[in-house]
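protien #1 (seq + structre)
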Amino acid sequence: MRRRGGGDGGDTGRADGRLGAARHGRARRSWLPWLRSILLAPLLSCAAVPFLVRLFPSVLTKFVYLNFLAFPFFVDFRRPELLVNNTINLYLTTEPGVTVGIWHTVPSSKGAEAQGKGQRWYEEALADAHPVIIYLHGNGGTRAASHRVQFLKTMGAADFHILALDYRGYGDSTGRPSESGFTTDVLALYDWVKARSGNSSILFWGHSLGTGIATNAARKLQEERGVQVDAVVLESPYTNIRDAAANIPITKIYRQLPGFEYLILDSMARAGMFFSSDENVKVLDCPLLILHAEDDGVLPPKLGHKLYETALKAYKDKSKVKFITFPQKLGLGHDYISFNPELPALVKDFLNMK
């Protein structure tokens, strides 16, 4: 009886084990499709991006402009003094329905006098003979981003006026971003400054995406009005937006795929984006300074050098064009050239300023 009972117990145990294994196998098979779906979803999404871009080119503008990334968040644009001294906020209507936000930093030599002053004093200060920089930032973020605030501090300390605007659709500015709209915003600000700055020099200073905006504005000013901006400074530039897209890190995974040019690069033009600095510099005649860090991981310095070579070939007066590279050991990358304490001296030397 005991042996029979023991044998039955062993059989039952083996049966329970087989049943448990079967259940475990079914459970494993049930979640395997979910795991495959989870792993495949991002791959399929990545693969679908080029086709979506080709079908809906307007989607591409979101990736290029990144104006929805309004960092730093929770900034009170009306109180720039919380981030940088000697600075006031103002708004300018650039065309009906579009108003852009601007920070105006005065030279640090006027810092004591600027305390407690309002917009009227700041406007009148533009005619004090100090050069004026209209600063055109890159994509993503706002005029309050840390490297842009550092630019205001660096060049303000070097006795420049700086007017940093958020283009339409950025920060607290109204409107929707577009290449032609950016040019309209910049020229409206140029006119506003010119009407108040007397004989002070006015420079367009573009960074990254803003370099294409700077050359667009300078070219339009020259061709349509016969007026030259006093100088253009291009920091971390590219030749045109197509070349930029072909070299930025985010497109690296697509470059080896067949149809990359057709699906993505050709779609830039279909979305109305050109930013053709390489064509613009062939027309310009104003002093042109190009700055690029050797360790720029976003827009490689070869693009800045190519743009320099194009300008140098086109300019009759070669002394008006200069290209400055910053060694990799400085670690300035794409965004931090303004952290270099030698920057103001380099700019002043190029502009023959004391």
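ok now protien #2
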Amino acid sequence: MVRSNQTSMVTEFFFSGFPKFEDGNLLFFIPLFIIYIFIIIGNLIVFFAVRMDTHMHNPMYNFISIFSFLEIWYTTATIPKMLCNLVSKKRTISIMGCLLQMYFFHSLGNSEGILLTTMAIDRYVAICNPLRYPTIMTPRLCTQLSIGSCIFGFLVLLPEIAWISTLPFCGPNQIHQIFCDFEPVLRLACTDTSMILIEDVIHAIAIIFSVLIISLSYIRIITMILRIPSAEGRQKAFSTCASHLGVFLMFYGSVSLMYLRFSATFPPILDTIIALMFAVLAPFFNPIIYSLRNKDMKIAIKKLLCLQKVFYASAS
């Protein structure tokens, strides 16, 4: 609902990025609900498979388990509200709720991006400097990098969210998106919106910097793999990086489409599709990529499922 009195303060936002036809919303609700359940269960399986198998207690799988844990909360920041909006006619969110959604969604996304960068560097050291790998990537450093990725991801957004919370919102309150995001929210502020360009530049620099580090790491890794004389050795080395590379392309590919366009505008339906790509589809495919492309992970998951069967059998 857009307020008629332009001087009154807006207390809630309305999402206008959802389908217009009410009767067909169930067709969107059911697939999205199934995808969300799959994301939660899939990432929990990956997380506990790594944690409960002592053979996988190494830096690479530790980072994968942390990434899977973050994915659960990353999707929980937006998808439950999307599901509610699909079955509700109101489709609103309070300003505080919007700020919290933006903060947790992007903080978790930042943490995942930093963790993906850390994972790329880890693979670089493991393949390009294997003799020194055990002394460089110690369990202590691995823990510090995991915790540091999460802490930095959450701290870096605090000033930005604090600044947005001080802005006045007194005009139209329609967010042309399916969840709260910086650009559509800032456009509703009753003040100079030139800061949007500065926000875009800051986000672009962060994204490009991470992509460059990861890309350079994998270019160096692939170069080293191609120098391995045996085909079996090349295949084994590449299999340890293929899943990371796939997740990197999914994550940063969709994020780049969303945040590296500056003043370019897309049709609303394309905006919604791109938002679904990095908020829903990328987390959906990540557990599949990690479980299908990794032999050790498949073995660990089978062990976990067998333990569950034994537990339920003994309980009954």
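The beta strands are 12-15, 92-94, 174-175.
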